[in-house]
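Pinned message: reference record for HTH domain protein
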Amino acid sequence: MTARQLADELEIHIRTVYRCIDSLCASGVPITADSGPNGGYRILGDFMESPLLFDADEQKALVHASIFAREAGYPFSAALERAVACYGVCAGQGFGYGVPRV
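Predicted structure (C-alpha cells):
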C-alpha cells in the first residue's frame, strides 16, 4: 500500500504516514518499501507484536482502576473493563479478580 493510499484510508496527512512508518521501524517492526508502479509499504513476514505482560500487582491495579472508573462515572469505564477482561483472555491467564459488568 502506498503512503498516499494509507493517508487517504486513514484520513491523515501523508507526512503523518511517513512519521508513523519511521516510528514503527525504529521500534523494530520489519517494514519494507518497494518502489515502482506496484510499490508501496508492507510488513515483512508474519510479524506479531509481543503481548503486554503485567506482574500481579500491576494486574490488580488495572482491575481496581476499572472498578474505580466505573464507580466515579468515568465515561469510558466500560471500555476499560473490556480491555482488562481482554488482557486476561489474550494473555492466557486470569486476573483472579472478577471485573463487574456495567
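Pinned by admin. Summary line: The mean pLDDT is 82.
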